[in-house]
Amino acid sequence: MTSSAAGADSLVDGLAALDISQISDALDRLGIVGQCAGIQPLDRRFRLAGRAFTVRYVPVGLSRGTVGDYIDDLAPGQVPVLDNAGRLDATVWGDLLTVTAHRMGLPGTVIDGICRDTERSLEVGYPIFSRGSWMRTGKDRVQADAYQVPVSVGGVRIEPGDILVGGADGLVAVPASRASQVLDVAVQIAASEDRIRAAVLAGGRLAEARTSVGYHDLQHRAR
To answer: Does the pLDDT at position 209 exceed 80?
Structure first.
């Protein structure tokens, strides 16, 4: 259950082919904070990869705002990234947005907060990564404050155009300016893990296989 803009963005495609843990280790090695704490897929089979389209939410004020009619303006390969300040008491994504995003072929949605109407997401296989789900609407509780601005998701700063990659173990954000470097390091890590796995399956000792490729230093910050 993967959704991405296949063939349209080589960096997105390259990162999408890797395990989340390999990208996470590459981020650590490069000293980049990109692991979005507490953000999980509605279904562990969901995978997501694409470029961030950011939306920042704030509590409603004296003038009643809206939760946003931005979805029709997204381009292929863009991921709606909704910063609702981690709120668990008001949703900013539901059935109509899921139906629209799925029809548009978007890679999926990321929410620092909650969603609702999860049955639709599961029914059509549209990936949502969030802090959970609850039915209470965000209308008249929160409003869209800004689009395509830096936002925070799971304690990670995300800027428009950054690459989001999600899998069974959570979500990582890769800064656009460092994406090529992160991809190169993650590919090296994946290759080292493949060599270890092959050695163990051939009957070798795990400790020896790890030592032979310098496993314990793979995620250490490069100097």
So the answer is: no
